[in-house]
Write a structure and sequence with these properties.
The protein is an alpha/beta fold. 36% of the residues lie in helices and 19% in strands.
Length: 303
């Protein structure tokens, strides 16, 4: 009787232990994890990525609507769009080849031997060269950045600015409440404000409008990284081309699936395409000297 009692108890305990999901024996297909498909830039990149991949079984997860808990997928390759998607993917699929895109300053993340990706930011040296080429009288650029997101980026950009005869005056912030205070201190010491992609500095639309209002009040121009900032008052934007980034990620995926990734010189690629927009009307209003022979390098000139 005692033995039977023990057997019954053990059976009960085993029935209470959750069973592990059974994974397919062989990795299959491609998994796309999108941080939030309601974000247009994320959705654009995903669409362009998929247009390049035909005949491949693709599974899609939108983290804004579903989680990766109890996931039974066993993909050959994972593509993570956005920081949230990447962080989740590195935990759920530790040993899988992983491609990322749309992550601010990818160097601050855990990059493994299985990681490939497309950087979000255009090369700082390329942008700095264009600033110097277009505006010969501008020498000091102000940069607001958060310590948690862009400290490494800023340190590298300082050295690159010196190479083209420019200097960067940076102010690091730890939260959104410091942005206007640090900008007020910075404005008398700079020729132009260089807005970079930073979720603390550009926390919401109200904060963006406040930054542009403060710079406009003292006639200090703004360079930015997205064409959308032209409507706020940026005189120059140099933006990475989102569809091209999606195509780049697709080419990476094809190379990995065809087992050609080992021949790649760079596992993390820079954005291959860009758009330059110049607001010539606002430049004239500010009385800024411009190198007119350099205008042939600009795709979109607002007269």
């Amino acid at each position: 009787m005692k033995i039977l009692y023990i057997i019954l108890i053990l059976s009960f305990i085993n029935s209470c232990v959750p069973t592990q999901p059974t994974l397919p024996d062989k990795p299959e297909g491609l998994l796309i994890i999108n941080s939030d498909t309601s974000v247009e830039k994320y959705l654009t990149i995903q669409r362009e990525f998929e247009t390049e991949l035909t005949g491949i079984n693709i599974t899609r997860i939108n983290l804004a609507e579903e989680s990766l808990r109890n996931n039974t997928l066993n993909p050959s390759l994972v593509y993570a769009i956005g920081s949230k998607a990447y962080n989740k993917a590195t935990v759920a699929f530790k040993n899988k080849p992983l491609i990322f895109s749309s992550m601010i300053n990818w160097r601050r993340f855990n990059i493994t031997a299985n990681t490939y990706g497309i950087a979000l930011e255009l090369p700082a040296e390329m942008q700095l060269f264009m600033y110097s080429y277009l505006f010969p009288d501008i020498h000091t650029l102000g940069v607001l950045y958060s310590k948690s997101h862009n400290s490494q980026w800023f340190e590298l950009a300082v050295a690159q600015a010196k190479e083209v005869g420019l200097s960067l005056y940076g102010k690091a912030v730890t939260d959104t409440t410091q942005v206007s205070q640090e900008l007020e201190k910075m404005l008398p010491k700079i020729d132009v404000l260089w807005l970079i992609s930073d979720p603390t500095v550009l926390h919401d639309a109200d904060q963006v409008q406040q930054i542009f209002a403060m710079t406009a009040a003292v006639k200090k121009p703004i360079f930015a990284y997205n064409t959308l900032f032209v409507k706020y008052g940026a005189i120059l934007t140099i933006a990475a081309d989102l569809p091209t980034m999606g195509h780049q990620a697709a080419y990476l995926a094809q190379s990995i699936l065809e087992q050609q990734a080992n021949s790649m010189e760079e596992k993390i690629q820079l954005p291959a395409g860009s758009h330059i927009t110049l607001d010539l009307k606002r430049i004239k209003e500010y009385g800024i000297n411009i190198n007119h022979s350099a205008l042939s390098s600009v795709e979109n000139v607002i007269q």
